[in-house]
Structures are given as structure tokens and as C-alpha cells.
């Protein structure tokens, strides 16, 4: 098993959201050799259910006839209107345009609320510049992959507008590699693209990429493999104007024990981290301050 047809993917997506009342915001599948099918899904719903992950995982295993490891995130939808103070005014326009811009801002705000049904810290709609800035609440349990997918959908739904969806501070997704390889697989490009999008949204110019390898096989080979994985990700980041230093971590303290707990895939990876001198949270505070001024 190495691929899924479009029909099967639609079936899996339907099963993942079957018990919810909302919509599927993000869905990815990976096929690590000799391990369960790795599925990540995010459902936006008004009624999160504690047993949804177990129920969906069981049904997926029956459909695929193969072990499945499902990571399911349920995001509570948000349909309450924003307080009046949260909708930020555009620069003062001539009186002849002020009413039209106010109406357009109101209509766009309502539409964005339908398209992005999650709590927001900032929603800035500027009809004159055709620019929208969205900063979700830090309490929103949405990962970078989910928010990137929602950003792309917003771009498609509102052509002609500059939409800036800024993810709250959080860890970036691991870039996973097949056993013994340092080539970034097409299935991992979504993770890398989402990470680059988040870094650019945060204004991050420098990162550190930590390459890892599992303890299976030759030590010297695995150390070189960890370095190569870090460099493969770093090269992609540099092409997007992000300076990336690389480190190889093999073997990490207690790695064999952690491999038993977390699985080998966690160490067949590269991790993108921000330097200690970088504060994404401070950058978010500046964005909020600028928007509210």
C-alpha cells in the first residue's frame, strides 16, 4: 500500500468527519514503510465529541484493511459576532466613499465570519486597500497545517483581496522522511509549505533545522543521514529568503526509549525551530498593537 485513489481519499475524509456537524479543514495521509498508515485530520464543529478519534480510526482500519494511526483535531466553531471594537476602521476616506466602504467592510466581515468560524484576536478589513488581516485567538487549538489550508481557501474565496492570516505562536510540523533517505517526499511538501508560510507570516528571518535519524542501522551512516535531512529542509527555506542553520541530533539522550514510545517516524525527521533570541509572541503583540492603534 503506497497510494490512495481520489475516491478512497473522499471516503476517508467523510469517515473522519462523520460524527461531527462541521467541515473537514485539513486532511493528510502518509505511508511509512512497515508502520500504520499515518492520517492527520482537522474537523471544525459546533459539537466536539470525545470518542470521535477512536470511532473514526476504527472505521478507517476496517476500510483500509491495514493498521491506522489517526491524529484528529476538533476545532470548536465560532458563530458569535465580533464586538464592535474588534472590527477596525480603514483610513478615513472622502465622505462620498465613506458609506460605501462601511457597507463593504460590514459585508466582508460577515462573510469572513462564515468562512473562518474560529475565535479571533484581530480582524482588520480595509476596503480601500483591499487588505484583510486575521489573527486567530491564541486559545484556538489549530495547528499550522490547518491554518495554512484555511488561508488558501480564504484566498480562493476572496480574489482581489490581500489576505494575511497570521497563525498564533506554536511549534512547526516535523518534516518526515522515508527510512534511509534524505529526499523530501511530495507528501511532506504540504508540511514544509505550511511552515514557510508561518515563518513568513511571523516575519522570521532565521531558523535552525535539526535533522534526526532513528537508531536502526549503522551509526556513522545515520549521523550523516541526520545532517543530510537537515540540509535538505534548510535549502528549501533559503530559497524563500529564510536563513537556516543546520544541526544533526543523533543519537539524542534516551533516544531508543523514546523511539519505543513515539515510534521511529519521530526520528526520521527534520524539525524547524526558531532561535532563542526570536520571540514570535512579541511579534504578535506588535501586530495587535498596530491594528488597534
UniProtKB/TrEMBL annotation:
The keyword Membrane is assigned to this record: yes
Locations listed in the record: Membrane
Any one Pfam family match given in the protein's UniProt record, by short name: OmpA
Primary location group: membrane
SUPFAM superfamilies: OmpA-like
Domain OmpA-like: 177-247
Listed GO CC annotations: membrane
Key words, A-Z: Membrane
Segments traversing the membrane: none
Protein's name according to its UniProt entry: OmpA family protein
Species annotation: Igneacidithiobacillus copahuensis
